[in-house]
């Protein structure tokens, strides 16, 4: 229920300098197209190739869908505000954007952990992999991802809906995120800040710790590889995965662990861009396009389209 006097918000975006807005529009349009088309290609390749219907690729499919939802909930409106003279978003539109973003945020963090677990089982227990990562286990992992993501989104969006916004209505950010909305609230935000901190510790810090634990088992297994070339390739893949994971978790932890009064929005916009724009663009490159089976699947998609 909307208890607020404010009926719409003004989104300031990355900059107020008119001479930069055209350049930023092209940059963010390129990023959006890269993220959307890259992840959509993964979705199509996995769905259309029966050989890719395994737990590893089903989790990659889920990650691609989450990244599409994340970028699509933010970037089209952001591009519109860069071009239009009016930079407003309705209260309902803002809450909808917040819901889908917090959903994708929770889903992505848990998916990274599930994917790390899947890889650790494949590397450390190759002979038992099919038995451990069965169809039932894959469904269970995806159900946990969905349950946590929906709960996270409903809790935070519901708590924001309880707040009163009586003005000002200017969001010093490029989308409707929890911290800038708390800064605009005319009602107490203590419970919101506590729940954000709890979610940050349990989801972000907890999932990151579990992800690192899985990768520590993988690294230990890599050291047992006898050939230097095998070690090099394994370390290259592992380091790339850890880099992308760190680029996601560290900015999220930094953003949500602090009270609203401590936010510096000009700096925090850049930090938010890492987990809303950069990571969804890098995920297809790091997790999928370097994989030989995925490359084969993608070539089959292009061959079908050409035919």
Structure explained in plain terms:
The mean pLDDT is 88. The protein has a three-stranded mixed β-sheet. With 307 residues, the chain is mainly α. Helix 2 runs antiparallel to helix 3, helix 3 runs parallel beside helix 7 and helix 5 runs antiparallel to helix 7.
The helix fraction, in percent, is: over 70%
Ranges with pLDDT <50 over ≥5 residues? Answer: none
Oligomeric state of this protein:
single chain
Share of residues in strands = under 5%
Major sheet: 3 strands, mixed
User: What is the mean predicted local confidence, pLDDT?
Assistant: 88
* Number of β-strand runs: 3
Total helical elements: 10
Strand order of the largest sheet: 2-1-3
Cα-based radius of gyration, to the nearest Å: 21 Å
Q: Helix/strand/pairing class, anyone?
A: mainly alpha
Order of helices and strands: EHHEHHHEHHHHH
| Span between termini | 52 Å
Shape: globular
């Amino acid at each position: 229920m909307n208890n607020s006097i404010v009926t719409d918000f003004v989104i300031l975006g990355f900059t107020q300098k008119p001479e930069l807005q055209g350049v930023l529009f092209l940059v963010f349009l390129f990023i959006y197209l890269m993220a959307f088309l890259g992840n959509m290609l993964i979705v199509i390749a996995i769905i259309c190739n029966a050989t890719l219907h395994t737990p590893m690729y089903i989790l990659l499919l889920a990650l691609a869908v989450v990244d599409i939802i994340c970028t699509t909930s933010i970037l089209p409106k952001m591009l519109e505000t860069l071009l239009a003279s009016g930079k407003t978003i309705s209260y309902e539109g803002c809450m909808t954007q917040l819901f889908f973003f917090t959903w994708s945020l929770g889903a992505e963090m848990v998916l990274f952990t599930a994917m790390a677990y899947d890889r650790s089982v494949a590397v450390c227990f190759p002979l038992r992999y099919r038995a451990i990562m069965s169809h039932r286990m894959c469904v269970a992992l995806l159900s946990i991802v969905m349950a946590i993501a929906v709960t996270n989104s409903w809790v935070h969006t519901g708590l924001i809906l309880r707040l009163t916004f009586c003005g000002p209505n200017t969001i010093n950010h490029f989308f409707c995120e929890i911290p800038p909305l708390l800064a605009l609230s005319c009602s107490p935000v203590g419970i919101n800040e506590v729940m954000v901190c709890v979610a940050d510790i349990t989801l972000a810090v907890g999932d990151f710790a579990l992800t690192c634990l899985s990768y520590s088992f993988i690294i230990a297994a890599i050291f047992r590889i006898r050939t230097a070339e095998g070690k090099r390739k394994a370390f290259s893949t592992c380091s790339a995965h850890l880099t992308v994971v760190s680029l996601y978790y560290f900015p999220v932890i930094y953003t949500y662990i602090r009270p609203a009064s401590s936010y510096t929005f000009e700096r925090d916009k850049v930090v938010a861009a890492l987990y809303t724009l950069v990571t969804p663009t890098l995920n297809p490159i790091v997790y999928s396009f370097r994989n030989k089976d995925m490359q084969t699947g993608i070539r089959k998609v292009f061959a079908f389209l050409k035919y």
